[in-house]
Amino acid sequence: MRFTDGHKALVEGSLFTDEDFERTEPACGCKDYDFGDLFERLSRSAFRSRFRLKPVDKNYVMEKGFDAIRRHAEDFVRNRLASADIPNDGRQTPMRGHPVFIAQHATGCCCRGCFEKWHGIPRGRGLTPSEQAYAVAVIMEWIGRQMQCVDNQ
Known about the structure:
Blueprint: H1 18-22, H2 36-43, H3 55-64, H4 66-80, H5 99-107, H6 112-119, H7 129-148
C-alpha cells in the first residue's frame, strides 16, 4: 500500500489539510459522496477535531489493508449503529482500540444521537442499507485522509 507525498502542512488544531477541502475525489476512492461540507463542519468541532490515528492505528490499517478495515467498519456500523433501538446508545463505541472506533467518533458516526446531529439521519428507526453504506464511506474517507498523512507523523 502506498501513500502520496506532497500534501500541505496540517493546520494547527485541525485534522485536515487545505487539500482536504479542495479534493475532488475522496481519499477512500468512493466517488458516490461529496464530503467537503461535512469535513469542514467536523473540523470546526473541538471534540471531533481532536481525534487522530496514532502510529499503532496506522500500522494496523497498513497491515490489514483498506478492504479489511472497510469490512470491520461495515460490521461495526451494522452491529452498533444500524438498529432502531440501541440500549446503550451514546456509549456503544469505544474511544480507542480500533481505527474504525476512532473514525466513528471523529465523524459523528459513533451513536445515533451524533449520527442524527452530524448527518441528519434520524434515530428511532433502523438504518437502511444505503445509510449504512454512507456511514461506512464517511468512516473510510476519514481513515483515508489520516493515512495520507502517514509520513508526517
